[in-house]
Each structure stands twice: as structure tokens, then as C-alpha cells.
Amino acid sequence: MEIEPVETESESSKIKKSVSHGNLRRVHRAHGDATWTIEDSCSVYGTDRWSKGFFGIGDDGYVSVAAPTASGTVTISMKQIIDGMRDRELSMPVMLRIENLIDERVVRLNECFGNAIQTTGYRSEYRSVFPIKVNQQKHVIESISRAGETFSHGLEAGSKPELMVALAMVGGPESLIICNGYKDEEFIDLGLQARRLGYRCFFVVESLDELKLIVQRSKHWAVEPLIGCRVKLSTKVDGHWSADSGDRSLFGLTAQKLIAAVDVLREEGMLDCLKMLHFHLGSQLTNIRNVRDGVREACRYYVGLVEDGAPLGYLDLGGGLAVDYDGTFSTQPHSRNYDLNEYCVDIVESVMETMDRHDVAHPVLVSESGRWTVAPMSVLLFNVLSVTDFEPIPIEPDDSSEFCESVKCLLDVIENLNARRVQENVNDAMYYRDQLRDLFRGGQIGLRERAFGDNLYLKILNRIVFEVLPQLKRIPSELESLPDQLADIYYGNFSVFQSLPDAWAIEQVFPVMPLHRHHEEPRRNAIIADLTCDCDGKLDRFSDSEGDVVRTIRLHEFKEDEPYYLGVFLVGAYQETLGDLHNLFGDTNVASVAVTSEGRINFVEEIQGDSISDVLSYVEYQPQELLQRFRAKAEEALNSGAITADQRQKMLNLYREGMQGYTYFED
Questions:
Q1: Disulfide check for 58: which of 64, 85, 508, 626 has CB 3.0–4.6 Å away?
Q2: Among candidates 543, 420, 540, 555, which has minimal Cα distance to 484?
Q3: Distances (CA, A) of 648 to 234, 247, 642, 658
């Protein structure tokens, strides 16, 4: 086992290594000999920080779900949901959607903006819009449209397929359809038909060429369009999506092009069609100061356009309302330093202040809060299949010959471990371990002696980590990563690339925790590997009890005769639609549940995940053709006498049945 190079100081400052004495596996506990409690588990996994009251741990040791209902919050156990999935033969992994949480978010967003408008005396209204790209699943869009019917909740489309969804799924004529992205003739024609039907379908202009096409098609159909312009703000934001802001952001019109757009519409006699100013600062705005600065700058553009003759009337804030994934309530990339009420009030007050100063009518406020709306509703559930640890195992030495010098030196290191010389102990162990490997490569020692020496090396590292380091007041910087390198590998029945692509692509940190056994202390430090044959197919960035990013998670001892379930939370935004077919692992099973006021769990929708036949067809294979090819091979083997007719038939049946099987591990 290699000791990895020490990270740079800048990276070390971002990642707190889990080497505090309370985190060292199998050694010290923060609570001494006291009985492990549910409260201890809540502290370890931070449920009180990131769950916003939706998830907790019940007295049965299972994760609990606090579901808002018409009669108040009803708490249920995840055990009830897992048992229900088992009864319906929905095997792991499963993407669980909890409809109550969608409803709550839609209602709360609209009510909070409504309260901010009422308390500040703002003289207009708010319209919520859901960006379909955040989660395009039919049942999700249906749930959002149903929950938002009272508020005329709208939809945002960034492509022709999404526009077709919006045209069919949006509520009444008061609901907005926002058309973002680049638009061809067909896209624009579809939107103009929505205008004919009386819907408030806005074309948000991204370029002057696009504006000219909108003008042309509007005249062709003799339909007056609703036009918005997306402005490129100079305001820069913090966090991963900072590239979405500032002068080098990918989308939007500069001040010069914005004026040019006004002039084009004026020349065409269509300036009255310019009804909206749109801007977007980023997907996850961690700092409320960035929000205020961006809104104030956008308002100045709004006022300028009005002064130049544009009627306007709508100000679209885009997305950006962040999710506090780690629960730190900070400007860290996976958090935010504000709550929903502050977000709404700051926006309303900032717009009101600028408009009043210039005697401009208050615009209708629009926001496209996708991530915040749907992230809490989905939980990826999966089971653990096996575990690899890095502990020494009993290996008998080869008695037929004397130990080589390297093995003798490793034995000497074990005998002389010393807290004051711990760095020297590690250096010596690495040196003699490497010598041993050179001897093996050169054929000077056998496999058994090599294995015996490697076992000694692991024994040294384990004793240093779990006996020596806890004695130190300060751990040497070069040894800070040592505990993580002895962490177990828990193999989960899922694909990171299919179900959690952001964990791989942008190092998104999602809350992860066991779904049960919370009466027991989790004594193992671990990373989680998926089923793919890829070194990136793993979860090795977690939020610890203080909200810091650490490389390992504490899990319970794996018992081969018992299922062990883990959950990844807050995955409702983007994860279901960004996933790919790495290793041809397809979509997981899906269960959408709704909790009633009486505490019943209704399985509203069950969707079987992709079969092997499904995913093969996605990459241009014809399952029937593959079956015929395999049949020919089996027939050839039968004719040659390699197999019997009965064996041939069993092979074909197995192949045929396998085509309809789940792409994931089936118990």
C-alpha cells in the first residue's frame, strides 16, 4: 500500500483531514464509555444542519422523514418505505422521490416572496418559474405544476423538447413560459402558437441574430411576441459557478448590444413587445451579498431601458437560490449564508429602492429557482455489497528459510514504535517495504515472504494510526492523511456516473448516511466505491460533524448476513438527467411516495429501472440480433459435441432472461 504524496497547503486548507482523536477508527470515542445514542448519530451525520427538518433519525434507529401534509407534519420511518419497496419488488438501488417535499417547496417559495412584497409595500407581484432542465422527469414536472396551480407557477424551457413539455404541462394562461437558450425557427414558431393560445410565453433574447429571427417569424404568423433580453452583468459571484457571472460569462447581451436590440425593435415598430429584462448570476449563489449586488446592477439596466422607451414590466432574476448541502450556513461552495426569507426580502427591497429612486413602476418579479425547489425531494438508496479493509491478517511465515533483511528490519520497526519518533518510524517502514518489493521483483524472495512483509507494513501503519497518533498533541503534517489511507472501501450497489454525476464532475458534496442501525456506534472510517470499473467511481468527499469536507465517512461494521443500506440526500436537482451509461449501468428503479395526513405511505408511482435490453438498445445494439448471434455460437458448440442439447437450451434461456434483468447487482 502506497502512502500518497502530501497535498499542497492550499488544498489542505480546504479539506480537513479526519485525524482528530474522536474520528480515529476503532480507538477513542468522544463520549467515553457512555451508551451510543440517536443524538450521537445525528451529530456525526449532521442531520440537524442540512436536512432543514425534512430528515432525522427515529427511535427505531432508522432515518425518519418529516413530511408536510394538509394537517401538519407527519413523521414516518424509512423502514416503512424500504419495506414497501420490497413488497413491490423494487430492488436496490432506488431513486426515492417524496412528493410532500416538492409541494412544500413550491408553496413556501411563493408564500415567502408574497410576504416580502406585502411587508415592504412593493407595488407589484411575484411569479415563480421552474427550469425544466433541473429535473425533466414527467412525474416531477406534474407535481410542480399541480402544487403551483394556486400561484400560476410557470416553466422555463431551454430547448425544443423542453418547450414541448412546457406547452403541454404548464397551468393556466397566467403562468409564465420562459424560453431561454438559442432558438431556431421551429422553436420560435412553437412559442408563437402559445401566444395565440393566450399564454404568457416570453422569448429571452441571447443574441441580435436571434432577435431578428423572432421579429421575422412574428410577422410571418402575425403574432405579437413577448420579448425579454438577457443582460450580461459585470457583478462577479463566489463559488463554483462564478464563471456564469461577470464580463466573461457565456450568455447575455452587453450594454452596447442591449441598446442595439432596443434600436432594432424600435425600427421594426415592435418596441412595445420588449416586456422583460432577464439576468442569471449562477446556479448556486452562496453569498447574499452577490445576490444584492447583482439585483441592484440589473435594476439600473431596467431603469435605463425604461428611460430609453422600452415598456418592460417583468424582471426575471434567473436561478441561483442555493441549497445548503453541508449545513454550515456559510459561503462555502456547498452552502449559503442566507435563508429564504432574507433572500426574498433583500431582492424585493433592492428592486423597490432603485425603482422608487427613478420613479419607475415596480416590475413583476420572476425567479427560476430550480435547484432549491427539487433538491430535497430525492434520495438515492442503495445497499452495500462487500467491504475491503486495510488491516493486517494472520499470515504464517515460510519456515523453510530465514527471513530476508528487509523483513527483519520491519519487525524491528514494530518493536521500536515510539510517539516521539513516529515520522522516522513511518519513513523506515516505507523504505523497508520498498526494498522488499524490489527483492520480490528480482526473484530473490518468494510470494509468501512478500505477503508476510506487506502484512508487517500494514500492522505498523495501523498501530501508528490507532495507538501512536492519539497520544500526540500535534500530528505531523506529513502524517495527516495516513488515517484516510487506511480507510475501508465499502462497495455500493449503484453508479456514481449514472446517479450522482456531480459528485464526480464538480466534486459536489452530498449528505450521505446509513439509513438504519443508528442505535450502534459507526466504528469504521470508509470511502464508498460504486460498481463501475473506474477509479473515479467513488464517494470520497463528505461533510463531517462540523461541516468541513473530509475524505472518509463513519459507517457501521458490515455484516454479510444482513443488508446494510445507505442514502445520498438532496439529489433531486440535475442528478437524474445528467447521468450517463458508464459500464452500461442504466437508470435506477424509481419510487415516488406521498405521505397522507393519517401517516399512510402511498406509492404514487413505481418505475422499473432500465433493463439490460434497454441500455443495449441505447448504444445501437439490437437485443434480438445479439440473441441470435449467441444462439449460433451455442448451436456450433452443440454440433461439435462440447455441450448437450439440454445445456444449450439452458444457456439460451439464461441469456434471454438476462436481457430483461436489472443492470445493477440483483440479490
A1: 64
A2: 540
A3: 69, 67, 10, 15
**231 phi/psi in degrees, rounded to 5:** -100, 140
CB 67 within 8 A of CB 97: no
308: confidence class by pLDDT, cuts 50, 70, 90: very high
Whole-number Cα distances in Å, 35 to 31, 56, 58, 117, 521: 8, 20, 17, 50, 9
Return the sign of the alpha-carbon dihedral for residues 71, 77, 83, 85.
Answer: positive
Tell which residue, 62, 54, 59, has the closest CA to residue 79: 62
Which residues are within 8 A (CB) of 504 and not within 5 positions of it... i.e. 6 or more apart? 496, 497, 536, 537
Q: Between β-strands 226-230 and 200-205, what pairing exists: parallel, antiparallel or unpaired?
A: parallel
- The three-state secondary structure class of 612 is helix
Give the C-alpha separation, 291 to 343, whole Å: 8
β-pairing, 553-555 with 524-529? antiparallel
Residue pair 382/566 in contact (Cβ under 8 Å)? The answer is yes
Angle between helices 138-147 and 99-120 (to 10 degrees): 40
Could you read off the pLDDT of 170-215 as tens digits, one per residue?
988 899 999 999 899 999 999 999 999 999 999 999 999 999 999 9
- List the beta strands (DSSP E) in 78-175: 94-98, 126-131, 154-157
Residue 188 contacts by C-beta under 8 Å, 6 or more apart in sequence? 203, 213, 214, 217, 218
Quickly count helices (H) and strands (E) in the chain: 23, 25
Cα–Cα distance between 28 and 425 in angstroms, integer?
A: 22
End-to-end Cα spacing for the chain:
32
Cell numbers 410557470 correspond to what residue?
154
Region 523-530 average pLDDT = 96
Distance, CA of 502 to CA of 482 (rounded, Å): 27
Question: Amino acid identity, residue 359?
Answer: D
* Burial class, 121, CB count within 10 angstroms (exposed 0-12 / middle 13-18 / buried 19+): exposed
Distance CA 2, CA 433 (A): 10
Three state DSSP letters for 507-525:
CCCCCEEECCCCCCCCCEE
The Cβ of residue 399 has, within 10 Å, a number of other Cβ atoms equal to 6
Contact between residue 374 and residue 415 where contact means Cβ atoms under 8 Å apart: no
- Orientation of helix 160-169 relative to helix 185-196, angle to 10°: 10
Q: Report which residue type is found at 307.
A: E
Report d(CA 185, CA 203) in Å as an integer: 12
How far is Cα 405 from Cα 448, in angstroms, rounded to an integer? 15
| DSSP string over 372-420 | HHHGGGEEEEEEEEEEE----------TTSPPPHHHHHHHHHHHT--GG
* pLDDT band (50, 70, 90) for residue 51: very high
- Dist CA 280 CA 204 (whole Å): 12
Q: How many CB atoms lie within 10 A of CB 254?
A: 12
Residue that the C-alpha cell 427613478 belongs to: 358
- Spatial distance between the Cα atoms of 662 and 614, rounded to a whole number of angstroms: 10
